[in-house]
């Protein structure tokens, strides 16, 4: 319990932790002191002067240093001669605050009158109208009319674009600096600033391109006037006509809580919903602006069936019966093993569970995966669930005592809102360590920003683990660590090759000490780490175990997997080797790569693809798919894969249906239906249910042909596999099934996901624009699943070994495929606003290396590995370390997929003539 | 009463010794001997103690005891900085200017001693951008002193290093406010910082920093040389020493004077500055300590010029900038000019100052132009009340001085200016 301080505010006694600001203490007793510049997520600045109040403190006798008391024994209060800003004044014991009297009101009225002398009062055409703190506070605290009757308001050119996404109306700006401070303090992109002074003082962008930040949209939420508006929402609707529907962002694994604000069955804007345990009140620009795919004209609108070599529109009945009959045909002739299924990571938990049931139970096939079978697929990550961040962890509360280790990850690009949360931990006194192969933005705040050489990841981890092993006493402690001796054996004789790894052993000893002495240890790892071999996630898990933080409060791994629901896909067994809840299987099926090979060899007859695009990810996959007897694609869009399909089944998007996702921190969260579908599409689970039921129905069985006894046997087999006919009426019922059958999801239901709501001190009486226009969370905060290690008494060290990559003489460079936030993925379809920010199809090359090769910006190079080569223009940048070339993943026409071998790949580079 | 004589100048020694701006002349008159003595035979604590004993108060305007300010600097936090406020931009002030141009080495010696006292190895002179000559001149003087081993590494074999850099401001009055000065020195927009933390704890680059005025530091070598008691032989008990004061306006002999603190305003105007310029135009009012100070009138002529006496009279000694105005000056025009200055210089950071100064000017303007309205005086007073004490820094408050002074002393004239239109 922190030291508490008791004070009175307008006669009401309140106790708050030491250090609390008067404005926050007042909120606790539902006393709203008006503010403009103050924001609870940022350091106070006291600029707008709106929150001035009277403050007094107990008078002290200078001789005795004791409070002076009056005849009644009460402390005499010495009122400060001037009004004080409640946002910059910390509470003190015995303080007396007066927020409502004529003097305070007079001053506050003055501030509002002052602000309005420069404000255009164009509320009728202002997007902020209706949710504007300036409007609201003027109604509550302002003068009814101004004494400043000049036609002399500040005039600026009406909105100027600050980059592609945000418009700035300088006339409306009241110069509270919230946006500038957000960019400086929270986003860490100090791209906004001020220019000039006095009344001419105004906001400018200081970056090229303008407003170069992935978090710019947040400034429109916290702007207390309509000075900053988004290009996406400008003039789209009046806010009071909008209906905010709670949803969850499906662009990455953070799972930001947000709303689709709809009017007339159309999404007008996306807004954050506060959830401190996930996104606080922030969104990244991809999440905020990338909603247009939902309403894209390019969506599939009706089932398609291939007739005479062409995809043609069909009814659902026709399409489904073709699929059912063909699948049944293959099932009865070659058995389930000739059928494969891919279900992607943007599908809901309910779809994924239904998918694996459909395969394992209905079709009797273990060939399922959530990946596309390309060389850029990530390995299956179990560590993130077994050693995942402990349930109940709220990163927004962590600070002093917490060490965040970012290993082989670029949170800004892979899971942007995590960047804000890591920065927040740092701001609150925690430490950040980055261990990466290339520079990332977090390096600037990191206590240790260390750069390893690609290929040495396991050696780096060994160097971190070794001192921890050595310092573990040979007593009972070792006995509680299963695998201790194996790890000792694996590290026997290990010595860090500082030259090859790029980091000194001393430095790593310091880091090991820091993480060992930390109270909490949070480890983020991303694409670079995941593709660096199984020993990397294992080594990270071992770090947790060896520092006694596996399963410990506020500690654990956060795996930045690709896709909103990759964790859900892994949890629910959409993978060939394990069933739901990571249950071991006696017979593993084929993974995506194996399925493509099997198809090429003619062993796989049918492939059922839902939300995955193998051909889009790797054009070479087309050859395999063309060999199939049946290709079914269940999709939003006519993807490259869908173009080859025999049957295409259109699905509803995240905005048109409901479901749940499991995020990187294993929080299950619910999204709702925001708009009514206007197309002839169905939710994924419904399609699977219809097929599952057809496949066990008499009609299909009898149509399958064959002799009667065989049919009878088959029906018996089906009955044994299929518990019953599927009768899910809604995703809620599938989740009930999941929680009954998947141990990790026990207790997760739509009811439990619904609550609790309302968080950090929003008061019932509060003008909800106090901290911006993000919505209060009424849709539920979700449920965080426990990590496996939390429930086991014995801790197991994971098998770990140090690998040293063999250097390839004629391929001295290292090629790295990097995730960029703005890629060519289907979820950005029709979000043209972000086009200019999309990663370009270029090879990033260090200027020193580029000089060595004699290439200028834009000149082409050929990059060749043992597998193949690609040809791209060069972009000279220090973001590529010397000796490393970086090529974006998920960008069209890059050819990366035919060059990489797993993770970092040795390549040769040649300047093209 | 006869004019008080001053035995010798403390800071404007150029008035006693010709060409003291030249290093050789300065050295011949004992220059840098005190720096040597301080660095080689005194402890920082002893220097701070001597300055404390002398009762030296900050000459920039606030009059805070210099030795006490130095002792606030936490010992354990390093590096520390000494910043010299040479932004001299208060309208009517031009005495630092003379020290810089005519007695620069005494300032530099004061910087060396003071930096040593607070444990700073780097000192920045933040000089008003318009003083281009002064800035170049100081750089030249620093170079000369460095050449002779008087500034730089291992001074006088003491092992102590001090570097002095000159930084020119960019023309903003607010940068005379110490935290805005620090922001500007760091390369940011010149706007005041929220306090606490105070500069002594987290100043330049968030390190412990002492910000002292030019004149304050120029006193230091003489205090070390002659001792606190000698220093106290000038001035009064609570305001010891002398003060360089700039007087301008309708006096016979405007200019800089180094006065012993405690002489009356009457003596200063009439005996030192030669009295009113035109015998037919008597004194109307005095802006005693720069444009931000509350005005005084004839009834205050016997007020002693000390920090405390001026404060008791509701105004301030300020930076030592007295503007004397005779009856030819219309009050409305004077107030308008003062407030136009503050409107022009308002940094824009806080709402009441940014918009309030503009509002005040608009109302003064209409009165001045003959379009005053009934109730305008009350309006000015009310807007002033909404600004006074509610702004982020003292600049906003300063603009209210003219409003309140004009109303306090010249209400009938203001009313007449409005009534004339009705």
From TrEMBL, chain B:
One Pfam family matching this protein: SLBB_2
UniProt entry tagged with the keyword Oxidoreductase: yes
Catalytic activity: a quinone + NADH + 5 H(+)(in) = a quinol + NAD(+) + 4 H(+)(out)
EC number(s) recorded for this UniProt protein: 7.1.1.-
Cross-referenced InterPro entries: NADH-UbQ_OxRdtase_51kDa_CS, NADH-UbQ_OxRdtase_suF, Nuo51_FMN-bd, Nuo51_FMN-bd_sf, Nuop51_4Fe4S-bd, Nuop51_4Fe4S-bd_sf, SLBB_dom
UniProt superkingdom: Bacteria
Domain NADH-ubiquinone oxidoreductase 51kDa subunit iron-sulphur binding: 332-377
Cofactor(s) the protein requires to work: FMN; [4Fe-4S] cluster
PROSITE patterns: COMPLEX1_51K_1, COMPLEX1_51K_2
A molecular function GO annotation: metal ion binding
Keyword annotations: 4Fe-4S, Flavoprotein, FMN, Iron, Iron-sulfur, Metal-binding, NAD, Oxidoreductase, Quinone, Translocase
Entry function: NDH-1 shuttles electrons from NADH, via FMN and iron-sulfur (Fe-S) centers, to quinones in the respiratory chain.
Family assignment from sequence similarity: Belongs to the complex I 51 kDa subunit family.
Name of this protein: NADH-quinone oxidoreductase subunit F
Organism name: Herpetosiphon geysericola
